[in-house]
Design goal:
mainly alpha; two-stranded antiparallel sheet; globular
Length: 264
């Protein structure tokens, strides 16, 4: 005897065809990933950022966008420093948009790699003052100590705050020794190369040592090597070769920025 089972029939109103939801476009998914914000300020202080990976490289959408916009405004204000301390300002160098563009570019690229870590405001402060210093040194061959000293003090206070917030004095002590090493190295150059290195260069070397030494001694060494290579390349320019005058400020800041960006 074969048993049969009744199969309930479904009416047309009970049949629902579920069509698969198409995935969002690739660019939309990528943008959402890059623009995800960190969720807690303690995480920012302790360096725990919301990073995404793109080909093995850490990228941060929102910090880069915000830093670039802020950098444009701060760079426009920094152009006032350029005009104040330049006796022969070139028209393009002293215009507000030139400083704004350089600052926005530097902060945007740096934030793209550093992310929302607590170090970002310190690095940004150094670069905001570093752009007008570079322009002044490029045209005037001098670095006003009235700008370099606040740059050094502000960076030191910012990093000291991070040491206290994270209860970790190790990076701060290394940064302090790196600051002394950088300043000492350029002070030695000032003694050996008469007239080639000034007191402003020594002060800026202390800033570079402080900021790069916060992460590692390798970053300081890389920044000094890159700065030396850039200075050597500038010395090969016929105009600089005749006067034998190379602005070390832009070289130091370029080397520092490159190392902070690459090593982040």
């Amino acid at each position: 005897m074969t048993q049969t089972h009744d199969v309930p029939s479904l009416g047309n109103d009970q049949l629902t065809v579920m069509s698969p939801t198409p995935p969002p476009p690739k660019f939309t998914r990528w943008w959402d990933e890059q623009c995800s914000l960190p969720t807690s300020w303690p995480a920012l202080l302790h360096g725990e950022l919301h990073q995404r990976q793109l080909g093995g490289t850490a990228v941060n959408g929102w910090p880069a966008i915000i830093s670039a916009v802020a950098g444009f405004s701060l760079g426009a204000g920094g152009s006032l420093i350029t005009k104040r301390f330049s006796s022969r300002p070139a028209q393009i160098a002293s215009s507000w948009w030139f400083g704004a563009f350089l600052t926005a570019l530097a902060l945007g690229i740096l934030a793209w790699r550093v992310g929302s870590r607590g170090e970002l405001p310190v690095y940004a402060f150094v670069l905001v003052l570093g752009v007008p210093l570079s322009i002044i040194d490029w045209f005037e061959h001098r670095l006003p100590r009235i700008v370099v000293v606040p740059q050094l003090v502000g960076a030191a206070l910012g990093l000291a705050f991070l040491c206290v917030a994270r209860s970790d004095p190790g990076p701060g002590l290394r940064a302090l020794w790196a600051m002394l090493a950088g300043a000492g190295f350029y002070l030695l150059l000032a003694v050996l190369v008469e007239g080639g290195v000034g007191s402003g260069d020594v002060g800026l070397a202390a800033v570079v040592g402080l900021v790069t030494g916060w992460s590692s001694w390798a970053e300081l060494a890389g920044a000094v090597v890159l700065a030396s290579l850039i200075a050597l390349a500038l010395l090969l320019v016929p105009r600089n070769r005749a006067s034998r005058a190379v602005p070390f400020g832009p070289c130091l800041l370029a080397g520092m920025t490159a190392m902070l960006t690459v090593a982040a």
